[in-house]
Amino acid sequence: MLQAIQSLVDSVNVYIVNGLAATGLMFLYFMFYKIFSRRRPDTGKFFLYAAWAWFVNILYLAVLDIRESEVLTGPLSVFAEFTLCTGADLLFLLAARTRVRGRFASLFSNRTLVPVFLVLLILPIVDWYFVSANMHLSTAVSILFDSFSVLTIAWCYYSFFTETPLAVSQRARNALVYSMAGYSIIQFGYIHVILPLSPVVASLLQSVFVVLGTFLKTVHIYGLTKFSEFFFADYEKKRTMFEDANLRNRMVLQLSHELKTPLLELELKTGDKAIEDAVIKATGENRLQSIPNLVERIRSLIRAFQKYQLHRADRATVKTVFNINDLCSEVFVTLKATTGLSVKVPSLYKKGATVYAHENDLFQVLTNVFKNAFEATEEESPAVVKITTEITPASRGLKRWIILRVSDNGCGIAASVKERIFEQDVSTKPGEGRGNGLWIARTLLKRNEGTIATKEQDSGIGRGACFEIKLPYHPKENLSASKGDT
């Protein structure tokens, strides 16, 4: 088996094959950066830094190939190899920094990474000229740093899939996590180059590690392609859901408007004394007296129709556990693309803000609340909508909540309608067919054990409205217990 691997390595330029695999990874990571940069900026940065790391890895493999062919020799080639290897490792750590939080964040701060990077750049020079030309010290340090940086990417994938419950296939998850974990072990295996091994054994180990590294890169490509299949299916689902919700709302609002306009005219006519006298003269009785009752009955039918449409939507869907922060980002991007409004949206999200609810319901709730905030800031410069989430602290016997606040620097809510803002047909904006968005939001939140209320504006962005949404906190470890509930 080992001899077969050695023969394969001798017959094929493994650096070119390895470089092709790295090229595929680079293009896939750049593709995911384009996808996530607007929807989830932190995740987009993760893929961007990793993409550049794979690009530097390609250059590193090219230098190794040139060195092995003895086209480039001497200290310059050695320093180029170490510099490119260190550069790729630093980019991997910058990618990991976008996902790392809590007590480990200091390990990835600039105060830590910059000195480490400078030491790794200077160490090969010191090792070559002042310690030993065999470079054992700098090689060992570089290998350990390389293995650690790759391992952080595996940890990032693991934390991503555990903290953000997604319906990604288990094969894709395993491929992404274990391929990078295995690649980290392979990188550590290169420590054999400083061990006192015979040339035959050293060459054989080198060949095995190169082939395994190429294989693991291929496995990682497989994991990314399967993940992309899920993402595009999920994106299409969200797009269809948003279009369906908008279509339902437009239909209900248009129908309500078409019915309310003639009803208003009828009410005005019934109060016209001249028309009443004419009807009594022609029929001998005031038949207009029954019209107000008929008008109110039709209005009741309109409200009943709106409620039916509201509860009919998504009644067959199941509840799922998902991160409310991710849903906020998706709704914001969708609204910005569909409305064309230029709004600055600073956000302060609490990590791990997972809820157990109907995702379609909350998508509609956030769409209605965010859209109101966007429209309220149309005349402002700059227009600012601030979104924050927090989780209430754990306390014995008390239910934990996720609190989501949406604040804007718009005109605010008039005192005359503030108490009735969540009632049907109540709006601060002029025009027929308005006043249902917040009523719908409150109704859908009630179905998901949540609430919505107005709060005093204290976000530091000026005057305007502030809405507070409360939803039961559902830790991710309770995911398995929730599956199948409706």
Based on the structure given, which CATH architecture of the largest domain is correct? Up-down Bundle
Domains, number: 2
**Major sheet size, sense and barrel closure:** 5 strands, mixed
Q: Give the total of beta strands.
A: 7
Mean pLDDT: 76
Helix count equals: 15
Structural class: alpha+beta
Strand order of the largest sheet: 2-4-5-7-6
Instruction: Indicate the CATH topology of the largest domain.
Output: Rhopdopsin 7-helix transmembrane proteins
Helix content: 55-70%
State the end-to-end distance: 54 Å
Shape field: elongated
Tell me the radius of gyration.
31 Å
The CATH class assignment of the largest domain is Mainly Alpha
Estimate what percentage of residues fall within beta strands.
5-15%
Low-confidence segments, given as residue ranges, are 479-486
Order of helices and strands: HHHHHHHHHHEHEEHEEHHEEH
Tags for this entry?
single chain, 486 residues, alpha+beta, Rhopdopsin 7-helix transmembrane proteins, Heat Shock Protein 90, five-stranded mixed sheet, 7 strands
